[in-house]
Amino acid sequence: MRSSAGFFLCSLLLLATHCTQAADPEVQPDPKTPCANWMGGAPGYPGHNGVPGRDGKDGRDGLKGEKGEEGMQGPKGDQGETGIPGSEGPRGFPGQPGQKGQKGEGSFVHRSAFSVGLTERAPHPNVPIRFTKIFYNEQNHYDATTGKFVCSISGTYYFAYHLTVYLSDVKVSLYKKDKAVIFTYDQFQKNNVDQASGSVLLHLNSGDEVWLQVYGDGENNGVYADNINDSTFMGFLLYPDLD
Questions:
Q1: Checking CA distances to 52, which of 11, 62, 86, 230 falls within 20 to 30 Å?
Q2: Is residue 162 part of a domain?
Q3: Where is the composition biased (Low complexity) (predicted)?
């Protein structure tokens, strides 16, 4: 019995040694051999997915790429604020003259004026003084035969007189329509030549008359004129009435 058991044990050891040599890692055992059926177990199940690893470090910037194609034009933007005016540019050359325009309608200019002087000494008192030396009377609104200015254009007029005084006192007055408007008195100084003058603005209607005359008696009639001394009377229209 002991010899039989020892033989069986030796056989197992020899078989194990043979199988161990056959399991060389570089030589895969034939799955059909008895040893493979004895040593190999059943295939295992796939393992679970591992935990994701950490993010790696950012890489270095790559080389600059080539210029891309020009894109489509975008929509027009909002208008910007007005900028500061720039400096004035150089002056340009003069342009060519334009065409001559059509002749316009002429406007009527109202004119009325006179300037006259005395030619006789000591004119008669209480009647219009006749100034017969004509300096200007283009419109003939002054009548040298009567010594009166006759208004032809209604409006505002200016009248003035400058009289040489000699040998006697002078009292004169400017009349409008038989009514004295202003008075002038000059007292003569012996061995001297003096001047009496006056001026006034008057509104006249067409047909009104204006003149100058000595008032009082003949003792106050020193109005004088000769070849080197003048006594003058003048008047002119400042502006006509609008109507």
A1: 62
A2: yes
A3: 88-100
Q: Which two tokens stand for residue 93?
A: 């050359």
Share of the chain above pLDDT 70, in %: 81
Beta strand residue intervals within the chain, DSSP E: 113-117, 133-136, 142-143, 148-150, 155-176, 179-186, 194-204, 209-214, 221-224, 232-240
Q: How many domains does the chain have?
A: 1
Q: How confident is the model at residue 95 (pLDDT cuts 50, 70, 90)?
A: confident
What are the angstrom distances between the C-alpha of 71 and each of 67, 74, 78, 83? 12, 9, 21, 30
pLDDT above 70 for 2: no
Q: What is the CATH number of the domain that holds 148?
A: 2.60.120.40
Whether 25 maps to a domain, the answer reads no
39 φ, ψ (degrees, to nearest 5): -85, -40
Domain that holds residue 168: 113-240
This prediction's pTM:
0.56
Q: Indicate whether 9 belongs to any domain.
A: no
Taking the alpha carbons at both ends of the chain, their separation in whole angstroms is: 173
